[in-house]
Write a structure and sequence with these properties.
Elements lengths: L1 H10 L1 E8 L2 E8 L3 H20 L3 E7 L18 H9 L1 E3 L2 E2 L5 H10 L22 H6 L4 E7 L18 E5 L12 E4 L2 E4 L12 H14 L6 E6 L11 H4 L12 E2 L2 E2 L14 H25 L6 E7 L11 H4 L14 H4 L3 E4 L8 E3 L3 E2 L3 H8 L32 E9 L8 E10 L2 E6 L6 E4 L15 H16 L1
Parallel strand pairs: 3-10, 3-13, 4-15, 5-16, 6-7, 6-10
Antiparallel strand pairs: 1-2, 4-14, 7-8, 8-9, 11-12, 13-14, 17-18, 18-19, 19-20
Length: 496
């Protein structure tokens, strides 16, 4: 470029090309090129600057009740997840990532607001966003992001006040209430606050699978031409019960089965049958198919990003809102869904909160690697703010106690300082969605140590999570000084 421009300056000529009677004529004309060249230089500088300032698109894919070990990249040998395995091979597989809680709603509130259990209004499954809350969508609007939510919401208490449109999203298509989010073939969905009938699922038919509908909407959104970067929250309701999936996915599996009977002649056959009354003949095949379907949908998202030239500058996050469940016929023990960890959904042992976390960002992450830094959902909002160059001190009413993990998102990560991660879970009495609060559980992790207390008056359990990831050996009696530090912390947070 400099060589060429130097010669143009010296010559001060332009070439005139014309056609006359089928012949090409060329002539030179002396001109003053300085103004034009200065314009080119300024335009080039502006273009470079614009490219440097271009912010990445962000897609956050949240699954519902997917266990740590239910992806091939994390060790599963039964369920087919080739696209997610590719994501791990081309991005970062976080092996020490934690959800915000052990059940859906408080985990999602934690994710959306950047707060852990210490700063939640409550930590039961009935918690909802409040009008004063500032979400990650609000924060990204400060960086001129277009924002969209497709899928399960379940944390809005009042339409027009805490629905997705009121909580920072420009576009919304999906499920609003908790119970809506428990149906894989919904009869109604919401589009920008307006109810839509899903006629394909009326009259006992199952013609429109929720997760596929949400994928289609996300792809249509990605295809739109826009000037601003986008943020998509793609929140799938599976593999949460009820267990259901298009037949082409469940037919890929021939597994040992114990049929789920649901309601029989008005009588529940297990504790969850009131919520999930339909029988499932092959629950293992269906659950495996649900995960494979999710994998397929992630592959479709990736393909569209690549086809539209947006893949390199898009951050894709894939994770789960909590550990695996045993509802509606699901058998987490069969799949070893929690991996080496103890417990499942509704536990604060790692099986309930330790989740798969994959992040791909081709522009910054050039090769796959494994990261063992402990972090949790409260860190997502400050991370996105950091990436989008939003100063949270200047965002009114934002309240987060998470930290940015942006420095981990490269091939040369910067080690984070050790800190304490904290959770609370208020278990409900009887009906899991009763709203009647029983015991409040507490858990905290600092470095290799993790403490759990299943009720304010319960004894504290202490585990070395490095040597004993399954939390089998309670060391509270042997490590009294460390146990006391956690005990004092739990007592302090209990009273706040």
């Amino acid at each position: 470029m400099p060589f060429l421009m130097g010669h143009i300056f010296k010559s001060g000529y332009k070439t005139i090309i014309s056609l006359h009677k089928g012949k090409v004529n060329m002539r030179l004309k002396r001109i003053n090129l300085l103004p034009a060249l200065l314009g080119i230089v300024l335009l080039s500088a502006f273009t470079v600057s614009a490219e440097q300032e271009k912010k990445p698109n962000i897609i956050f894919i949240l699954t519902d009740d997917l266990g740590f070990n239910q992806i091939g990249a994390y060790g599963d040998t039964v369920i087919k997840t080739p696209n997610l395995d590719d994501m791990a091979n081309n991005g970062i597989r976080f092996d020490q990532a934690y959800a915000g809680n052990t059940v859906c709603s408080p985990s999602r509130v934690s994710l959306f607001t950047g707060r852990d259990g210490r700063y939640m209004s409550n930590n039961s499954n009935t918690v909802q966003l409040e009008e004063i809350d500032i979400t990650m969508a609000h924060v990204l609007k400060h960086a001129d992001y277009d924002t969209a939510l497709f899928g399960k919401y379940s944390i809005g208490s009042k339409m027009g006040v805490t629905d997705p449109l009121a909580m920072g999203f420009d576009t919304w298509y999906g499920m609003y209430s908790i119970l809506e989010g428990h149906r894989q073939y919904p009869k109604i969905l919401w589009r920008d606050g307006v109810k839509e009938r899903i006629t394909e699922n009326e009259g006992g038919r199952k013609g429109a699978y929720a997760s596929e509908l949400f994928t289609n909407e996300a792809i249509s959104y990605i295809k739109q031409e826009r000037e601003n970067p986008f943020f998509i929250m793609l929140a799938y309701p599976s593999p949460h019960a009820d267990l259901a999936v298009p037949k082409q996915y469940s037919d890929q599996y021939d597994l040992p089965e114990t049929p789920y009977l649901g309601m029989q002649n008005g009588i529940p056959t297990d504790k969850y049958a009131w919520y999930y009354p339909e029988p499932v003949e092959k629950p293992n095949a269906v659950l495996a198919g649900m995960v494979t379907a999710l994998d397929d949908y992630v592959g479709r998202i990736m393909s569209e990003l690549e086809a539209s030239g947006q893949l390199d500058n898009t951050i894709i996050v894939f994770t789960s809102d909590n550990g695996p469940h045993d509802e509606g016929g699901a058998d987490p023990e069969f799949f070893k869904a929690a991996g080496p960890y103890k417990g499942q959904k509704r536990d604060l042992y790692d099986g309930g909160i330790h989740v798969p976390m994959l992040i791909q960002w081709p522009e910054k992450i050039k090769k796959g690697r494994v990261d063992n830094t402990p972090w949790l959902f409260a860190d997502v909002l400050p991370t996105f703010a950091d990436i989008a160059e939003v100063n949270l001190d200047l965002v009114p009413r934002v309240k987060t106690n998470g930290v940015s993990i942006k420095d981990l998102l490269s091939d040369s990560p910067v080690k984070m300082a050790e800190r304490t991660l904290y959770w609370e879970f208020s278990k409900q009495v009887g009906d899991p969605n009763s709203g009647v609060i029983g015991d409040t559980y507490q858990a905290a992790r600092r470095g290799e140590w993790k403490a759990v207390r299943y009720g304010f008056d319960a004894p504290l359990e202490l585990f070395n999570i490095t040597s004993d990831p399954g939390e089998r050996h309670n060391l509270a009696a042997k490590q009294k000084s460390i146990a006391k530090e956690f005990y004092d912390m739990f007592e302090k947070y209990k009273s706040e």
